[in-house]
């Protein structure tokens, strides 16, 4: 009897590291009616912030990268080589008008549209395609004015690129970043410390010591199909990817990491095929 190939796949989806701007928390909705004898209080005011510079470099921490607004000052891109963790690739005018209604700058609709814009345009800036970008640790983040600044007339948005090189740590980016992916992601490609689904698995940059690497992106559809269907979507594709890079076509390993509903909602609308490094 002809022996069958020995394969292994990830038993569960590993959590994706997604840098997404968190929504601003709202304050107490209760209102206090003024006493008839109280003096009227002037509403708070704020000066409109200037539009951020384009092609700027920053030395952000991951907490600063996750914030919806930023007050960090840019650094000189040339002088900051080796320590730049965030590079602005797009600055534009933010629209808070949705379906004929003026919405708050921190509303889900406004921030969702901003997220789509920044995600859509990063690959072209890097000089690559969406697949290569998804097989890397480089991810977009975005900033907008504070609510007070928006009320005072600030209407800008800012898209930055960052690289989550190890768990929740940002790594240095090449400067200049524009066109840096023309020949692939290189050291910023996506790798793992172990087989996806293993207890000690975490995503890291391939420039660090690694055991597995992501090699293909799995299309699981335009809308989330449910976890069972998402899990099934990449089985054949990832098995074939493992077979193609194996030295022995009858003895090889492969892994498939599929998106959960929560990851899909956060922006990871695809699966990943993994092979041993």
From TrEMBL:
Species per Swiss-Prot/TrEMBL record: Nocardioides imazamoxiresistens
Extent of the signal sequence: 1-27
Disordered: annotated span: 27-52
Domain Septum formation-related, residue spans: 64-270
InterPro entries to which the protein is assigned, alphabetical: Septum_form
Name recorded for this polypeptide: Septum formation family protein
Bias kind Low complexity: ranges: 33-51
Keyword line: Signal
